[in-house]
Design a protein that fits this description.
The complex is a heterodimer of chains A (775) and B (164).
Chain A: H1 2-26, E1 68-78, E2 83-93, E3 100-106, H2 132-140, E4 149-155, E5 158-159, E6 162-165, E7 168-177, E8 182-192, H3 196-199, E9 204-208, E10 213-218, E11 224-225, E12 228-229, E13 233-234, E14 250-259, E15 263-266, E16 269-270, H4 273-276, H5 279-288, E17 296-299, H6 301-308, E18 315-325, E19 330-333, E20 337-345, E21 348-356, H7 363-382, E22 390-395, E23 400-403, E24 406-409, H8 421-436, H9 452-473, H10 499-502, H11 522-542, H12 544-557, H13 565-574, H14 581-589, E25 597-607, H15 612-619, E26 637-640, H16 655-658, H17 660-669, H18 672-677, E27 683-690, E28 699-705, E29 710-715, E30 726-733, E31 737-742, E32 757-758, H19 766-774
Chain B: H1 2-9, E1 24-32, E2 37-45, H2 46-57, H3 71-83, E3 84-88, E4 91-92, E5 96-103, E6 106-113, E7 121-126, E8 137-144, E9 147-154, E10 159-163
Parallel strand pairs in B: 1-8
Antiparallel strand pairs in B: 1-2, 2-6, 3-4, 3-7, 5-6, 7-10, 8-9
Chain lengths: 775, 164
């Protein structure tokens, strides 16, 4: 054994000295120094320093705090004039260690005010020709006169000084709000509701000319408290339209008065069901509570059509209470059909609910409530049990927007009643997505105003898992008009779907860690890329077990709290022992992409006869007769087929026949049993992998052997830590390798696969295969 | 409604979910010297493409395989030839529309220009969907041997010449 140690030491010294020697030859000019740019360096410069509020492990710190805002509201809808009136009393509790001199209240409706600067936030110009409708709408039409009319801000009748700065209102209190104290004040307001199908927006109404009715989906409808926290102070970054919301948790008591013939549902527990439900509705509701396999209709299509013809002058008040929610939304209309079914989450029954006008049928009665139920189950499995008592999906044209317990979703048959696969899958996907938002950010309450990707990216990733799961629970969804799908056709999540974005024009790409107002392509940036990055993390980098445990840990640590990106990044490492700084840095902080290929493959043979190259190397160390020199007399020489010392015999038979000294060495030092256990040097390859792409990733290679078998080997990402452009691998193989393929299952979003195969082949391009197929 | 929606979309993106809130097409243009062929795959959103064909030609096409009528391809070809141009050395090259493929919510258009024995500079003009959406952006990935260039064309800047 000693001799082996000695020999390997000798060779190690030799090769180190040798490579040092060659470097000396190259380096002539003095090089400049540099800071650490290694892609594996830790993210100390990017991450905030851990503190008592947020720990280095990614968990809330021992002095973590969050403030709360409780609301009591009386809301009245004037359907005829499309006006919403509200009186609210806010109780704001300061759990921070800081005295607050003033409060900030968000007035998101002001983005729709006539003088809203958001309307002028983009550049605009005239085209030489413009279609008339677009010309009129773009330049001639009077602006919509929306935005809050704040009528009163007071405490027990005493006016409070307040200043409105666009979408933010500063309210001054008689004295600073001390830690641990609450402040109660009231606001009276109204605003003109927008038609969201014309004036856009995440809420509003759709008008149905045929029956002269409106379907309202109402949100951001009341002045809402801004978040005060350890990261931002007051989060009073204005609402410009892309960055969504940051809201504190609180308890809500909301009374909503609407025309008597409206059907309404919203965030929270309905308090006066017996007053607002008919006897029939109550009976059906009781049935729905125990129907776990199919929805029970509370208001039928027939009844809804009859309702459409009503025009009640009387009103009805619906009373809701919600605990630990960050917002409130509701939907109301004469047109609504209503169905519900129960779903078991943990040991609790939750109601999956849908509200939709007849225009959504037959699509909605078939799929909506089932999609809600399935989403709650899948998300609960990966995060925590859904804590609320219901989740509602409301059908609204062209909408896809989420609020606690309630969301709006698009997807409608066309005028002739035809439902394309695109419409069907689009509808189910948006429902899964928006219901999923109950988890991120309604419960894992990240700051959307600052980090659009945190809720959208995590949620789109979970949406992908849920869509796949949905098709397993309801395989009927897969039989389409055009084909039978093998699995749910998810638009986002799979690596191949991100390639076109990631290889795109760098001028129009932003790192994921960019504020939503500043990104070029919000869909790819905040939804697609982070979802794909998490999917790759789960499938390829961490594996299901480590990923799922860590992801769940993050969700549970930050359930009903306000996490930051670092809290997520840190938790994923903390719970898995997988160093991921390189992954976060590359995928989330840069616009780099994956491109790994095979540059070269050398096939080596062995011999005991000193080769020309071997001799040349040894002579540098003063070894002139290596065959006799005691230091090298049992050396092994490697050579390729094009070496002048190559002999045809080396290709065939037992390689030890060509290297008798190696055989002697083995027999001198090992038992036959030990030798049998060793890898035989039958096929020796040196593979050079190159990396034109900036991202480091594990190298996944499929080796195909001459005997028809194959195997996939994964080299850890750390192979790139000392050389970011090229690495070599020495491969001992029992079997002859006939082909190597990098990333054989397209799991890394490699943007150029032409360099992934060895020997290089003219793979029939996508274009060529299409052309051949056509002919 | 789409036109209205499009105009307003920039100050308030109404959907935070699955609607492609950005109007973007992606076109790969590869010059394959040994085949003397310029191979083009253009990917556009199917619903937008259906809209533009129907509005422009006053049709009621459905870009859905089972509901497709033969005439559709005639109009697709006509539209491509109205909106997509390749020139080389001052000469407009003649496009051959090979057909299309559906992939998720996108439609892939296959276009070829044959008999190009040499190519050292190319002018690409892409106005696809800019007649429907002012802010349509058309991404181009051009490749010829080892040379690669990516850029975006839009209504106000619809042409670009590259020399390689």
């Amino acid at each position: 054994m000693n001799r082996i140690k000695y020999a390997s030491l000798f060779l190690a010294v030799l090769s180190v000295t040798f490579s040092g020697f060659s470097q000396e030859e190259k380096v002539e000019e003095k090089q400049e120094g540099h800071t650490n740019q290694n892609k594996f360096r830790q993210l100390y410069d990017e991450f905030a320093t851990p503190n008592v509020y947020r720990t280095a492990s990614g968990a809330p710190g021992h002095q973590y705090y969050q403030n709360t805002a409780d609301y009591e509201m009386d809301i009245t809808l004037d359907d005829e004039n499309t006006m919403l009136y509200g009186k609210e009393t806010i109780t704001y509790t300061n759990n921070s260690p800081d005295a607050l001199e003033y409060l900030w209240v968000m007035l998101d409706q002001n983005i729709r005010a006539k003088d809203s600067p958001a309307k002028e936030r983009n550049s605009g110009e005239f085209a030489p020709v413009t279609p008339a409708p677009s010309f009129v709408n773009s330049h001639m039409k009077a602006d919509f006169d929306g935005g809050f009319n704040i009528k009163k801000v007071h405490k027990d009748g005493q006016p409070l000084p307040h200043t409105i700065n666009y979408t933010m209102m500063r309210v001054e209190m008689p004295e600073p709000l001390m830690p641990g104290k609450s402040f109660e004040f009231s606001i009276e307001w109204d605003y003109l509701i927008n038609n969201h199908t014309i004036n856009s927006g995440r809420s509003g109404y759709e008008y149905f000319e045929e029956d002269n009715n409106r379907a309202y989906v109402i949100a951001q409808f009341f002045p809402r408290m801004a978040v005060y926290n350890d990261k931002e102070g007051w989060q009073n970054y204005q609402f410009w339209g892309s960055g969504e919301f940051a809201l504190p948790f609180g308890n809500y008591e909301v009374n909503i008065t609407v025309p008597e013939d409206h059907i309404l549902d919203g965030t929270g527990k309905l308090q006066n069901r017996k007053e607002v439900f008919s006897k029939t509705m109550l009976d059906r509701y009781e049935q729905a509570k125990t129907s776990f396999d199919k929805p029970v209709v509370i208001v039928t299509e027939e009844e809804a059509v009859a309702n459409e013809k009503m025009n009640a002058t009387e009103t009805k008040t619906w009373e809701f209470k919600a605990e630990m929610v960050r917002d409130f939304g509701f939907a109301t209309s004469r047109k609504f059909i209503w169905d519900m079914m129960a779903v078991k989450v943990g040991d609790k029954d939750v109601m999956a609910v849908s509200l939709y006008p007849k225009e959504g049928n037959p699509l909605w009665e078939e799929w909506s409530t089932r999609a809600v139920a399935s989403t709650l189950e899948t998300y609960s499995n990966y995060t925590f049990n859904y804590p609320y008592h219901k989740a509602i999906s409301v059908h609204a044209k062209s909408q896809g927007m989420e609020y606690p317990m309630i969301c709006w979703n698009y997807g409608r048959p066309d005028e002739n009643g035809f439902i394309s696969d695109r419409t069907k899958f689009g509808m189910v996907s948006v429902i899964i997505h928006e219901v999923g938002h109950n988890f991120f950010p309604m419960i894992v309450n990240s700051d959307e105003r600052q980090w659009g990707w945190m809720d959208e990216g995590l949620n789109t990733f979970m949406q992908y898992l849920s869509e796949q799961e949905f098709a397993k629970t309801y395989p009927a969804i897969l039989s389409g008009n055009e084909e039978i799908y093998e699995k749910y056709p998810s638009r986002r999540g799979e690596p191949s779907k991100m390639v076109n974005y990631m290889k795109g024009d760098q001028e129009y790409i932003s790192p994921i860690m960019t504020n939503p107002e500043q990104v070029y392509q919000l869909g790819n940036n905040a939804y697609g890329k982070p979802a794909t990055a998490l999917n790759i993390l789960r499938e390829t980098v961490m594996g299901h077990e480590l990923f799922d445990y860590s992801f769940k840990t993050f969700a549970q640590r930050w359930m009903f709290k306000h996490p930051t990106p670092e809290d997520f990044f840190r938790t994923m490492e903390d719970a898995s022992a997988v160093d991921l700084d390189w992954y976060w840095r590359g995928w989330f902080y840069t616009t780099d992409y994956v491109d790994i290929g095979i540059e070269d493959v050398k096939n080596y043979f062995i011999t005991s006869n000193p080769t020309t190259e071997g001799k040349a190397l040894l002579s540098r160390y003063g070894i002139d007769d290596p065959a006799e020199d005691p230091r090298t007399k049992d050396a092994v020489y490697l050579l390729t087929e094009d070496s002048e010392d190559f002999e045809a015999a080396m290709k065939n038979g037992d390689p030890l026949d060509q290297a008798p000294k190696l055989r002697e060495y083995l027999m001198n030092n090992f038992t036959q049993q030990e030798i049998d256990m060793m890898k035989q040097p039958k096929h020796i390859y040196e593979v050079t992998f190159n990396k034109p792409g900036g991202l480091v990733m594990p190298i996944i290679v499929e080796f195909q052997y001459a005997d028809g078998t194959s195997e996939v080997i994964e080299y850890p990402v750390q192979v790139w830590r000392k050389n970011d452009s090229e690495v070599k691998k020495a491969i001992f193989s029992e079997k002859e390798i006939v082909k190597m393929i990098v990333d054989p299952n397209a799991e890394t979003a490699d943007v150029d696969t032409a360099n992934n195969v060895w020997p290089r082949e003219d793979t029939s391009s996508e274009f060529e295969s299409f052309k051949e197929e056509k002919q | 409604m789409k036109v209205l929606l499009t105009f307003f979309i920039w100050f308030s993106i109404s959907t935070t979910a699955d609607v492609h809130e950005f109007y973007l097409s992606v076109t790969d243009i590869n010059y394959v010297a040994e085949k003397q062929s310029l191979q083009i795959i253009s990917r556009v959103f199917t619903d937008d493409f259906e809209d533009v064909l129907n509005k422009r030609y006053q049709k009621d096409f459905k870009l859905i395989p089972s509901l497709e009528v033969k005439e559709t391809d005639v109009y697709i070809e006509r539209y491509i030839k109205d909106k997509f141009f390749i020139e080389s050395e001052g000469k407009l090259l003649s496009l051959k529309y090979l057909g299309k493929k559906y992939e998720d919510d996108m439609i892939y258009l296959y276009i070829e220009i044959e008999n190009i024995d040499e190519l050292s500079s190319i002018t690409i003009e892409n106005l696809i969907l800019t007649d429907l959406f002012e802010e349509q952006k058309n991404m181009i990935h051009f490749k010829s041997g080892g040379f690669e260039k990516s850029f975006i064309l839009e209504k106000k800047l619809s042409r670009r010449t590259i020399t390689f």
